[in-house]
Design goal:
Layout (H helix, E strand, L loop, with lengths): L6 H10 L7 E6 L3 H16 L3 E3 L7 E6 L4 H13 L1 H6 L4 E6 H13 L5 E3 L7 H6 L4 E3 L6 H10 L8 E5 L1 E2 L10 H5 L3 E2 L2 H13 L4 E5 L9 H9 L6 E5 L8 H9 L6 E3 L7 H6 L6 H14 L4 E8 L6 H14 L3 E6 L17 H24 L5 E6 L4 E3 L5 E5 L8 E9 L4 E5 L2
Parallel strand pairs: 1-2, 1-3, 3-4, 4-5, 5-6, 7-10, 10-11, 12-13, 13-14, 17-19
Antiparallel strand pairs: 8-9, 15-16, 15-18, 16-17, 18-19
Helix pairs in contact: 9-10, 11-13, 14-15
The chain binds 5'-deoxyadenosine and iron/sulfur cluster (SF4).
């Protein structure tokens, strides 16, 4: 169905409709950095079509909700949020409410059925056609999973990143081939597709020219891009780009050479996000994760040895089917040895379509909660330990606006002293470490 909304016809419509009255669009994003990247591009597309972008729902003629499906909790939250929009639609019958992204892909028909005030529902690979669909007054569900490489690169070329930001999100791949047994991503985002290295580098160059100082290379398994190492080296050498980050690294493809490349290039941020998920090989196997706890720890310890100041963050799931106390204990062992700078922790919840959803979800909610609390306590202890190493030190930040910024290791620092516009470099003397952030005094 999606095929009829080609990019070519979108361009035609853009030309034909340049004289129409300016509409206003509000875009709200749930979920991961990939979604944030998609939303930024969507904003730019709407702007190119002559829309005003607003942060105020009350001003919107079009509302776009970019949704996440990774955990059931995220979907429930989005559904209740969307449910409340029926009042907005009642007050403004011409309002177009659009639901895009992974949840739209997964629950298309159901969303239209349960939320009759929603006009358009489209999946991640079709969302850039939304301005055209509004123009053509298309209503209903338009799902398009046929995501050819050509289309992916077309979409990416369409828009770079928001000019008001100092940091640009640059997807280098999309989708995932790993099929971890708990994960819905391969079903809603499709198989892996890689952008050409030259397109990625050209986009980095073009946003550098616009004054962007930091790029975040994105992918569900960013390091599975066949030219990942070359992309890192080349992106790090672009004049004007001072920081290059990459998320998320799949542990099985995280080799020492990547760490060496990061150590060698000052523009590559000393920050690694590598999801562990579990410290038990038995559970990792059931999760269909293709590495062992030992190989995971080996790479983290190599990072610690090669770049002692580097941050390592991770994702961990507790209460996966058949997780016994002994398995959980193994996760705690890795947490103790790896000393993560930050951990994102989750209670396992079965997701539709996944192979784990056919397993018996046999760890009780009570035990999941207990394990999560223990894990969070341990993670916070280690994160504080790592942050305390910065006490009394001067750190260089890129301001995120006001009195808040981030180190190259992605740590959040709040400071006392004069505020700063986004992207400005600020030097802060760290006075206090907390598990999730630092406080200090601005010295420059
Ligand atoms: N249950 C709990 N956590 C999950 N994640 C992904 N799927 C599930 C699930 N079914 C977590 C993983 C992943 C992060 C983005 O979300 O830790 O790395
Ligand atoms: Fe999901 Fe696993 Fe792919 Fe990550 S690597 S997106 S957890 S299937």
């Amino acid at each position: 169905m999606g095929g009829q909304y080609s990019r070519e016809s979108s361009k035609k419509i853009m030309k034909n409709t340049s004289k129409r009255i300016k509409k206003t669009v509000y875009i709200k994003t749930f979920g991961c950095q990939m979604n944030k990247a998609d939303s930024r591009r969507l904003k730019e597309l709407f702007a190119m079509e002559g829309y005003n972008i607003t942060e105020k729902k009350s001003k919107a003629d079009v509302m776009v909700y970019n949704t996440c499906s990774v955990r059931g909790h995220a979907e429930n939250k989005a559904m209740s949020h969307l449910g409340r929009l029926k009042f907005a639609k009642k007050n403004k019958p011409d309002l177009k409410i659009c639901v895009v992204g992974c949840m739209a892909q997964r629950m298309g028909e159901e969303i239209i059925e349960r939320l009759p005030h929603v006009s358009i529902v489209v999946g991640p690979s079709t969302m850039f056609r939304i301005p055209l669909m509004i123009e053509e007054e298309v209503e209903g569900v338009v799902l398009d999973t046929a995501d050819s490489v050509k289309e992916f690169s077309d979409y990416i070329d369409e828009a770079a990143c928001e000019k008001s930001e100092y940091s640009g999100y640059i997807p280098i791949m999309k989708g995932c081939n790993n099929f971890c047994s708990y994960c819905i991503v391969p079903y809603v985002r499709g198989r892996e597709q890689y952008r050409d290295k030259s397109d990625v580098i050209n986009e980095c160059r073009s946003i550098a020219k616009k004054g962007i100082k930091e790029v975040m290379l994105l992918g569900q398994t960013v390091n599975s891009h066949p030219r990942f190492k070359d992309i890192l080296k080349e992106a790090a050498s672009i004049s004007g780009i001072e920081r290059v980050r990459f998320v998320t690294s799949y542990p099985g493809q995280m080799d020492r050479e990547i760490v060496d490349i990061v150590a060698e290039h000052s523009a590559l941020c000393n920050y690694f996000h590598i999801p562990l998920q579990s410290g038990s090989d038995r559970i990792l196997k059931k999760m269909n994760r293709k590495y062992t706890a030992e190989s995971f720890l080996d790479i983290v310890l190599y990072i610690r040895e090669k770049i002692p100041s580097a941050s390592v963050s991770t994702d961990i799931i507790v209460g996966f089917p058949e997780e016994k106390n002994a398995d959980f204990q193994k996760t705690l062992d890795i947490v103790e040895k790896a000393v993560f700078d930050q951990c994102f922790t989750f209670k396992y919840s079965p997701r539709p379509m996944t192979t784990a959803s056919k397993m018996d979800d046999d760890v009780s909610v009570k035990v999941k909660k207990e394990r999560l609390a223990i894990l969070n306590r341990e993670c916070e202890k280690r994160a504080l330990e790592r942050n305390k190493m910065l006490n009394g030190k001067r750190v260089e930040l890129f301001s995120e606006g006001g009195r808040k910024g981030r180190t190259d290791t992605y740590k959040i620092v709040f400071w006392e002293g004069s505020p700063s516009p986004p992207g400005e470099k600020v030097i802060v003397n760290v006075k206090k470490a907390m598990p999730h952030s630092l406080k200090g005094v601005r010295v420059l």
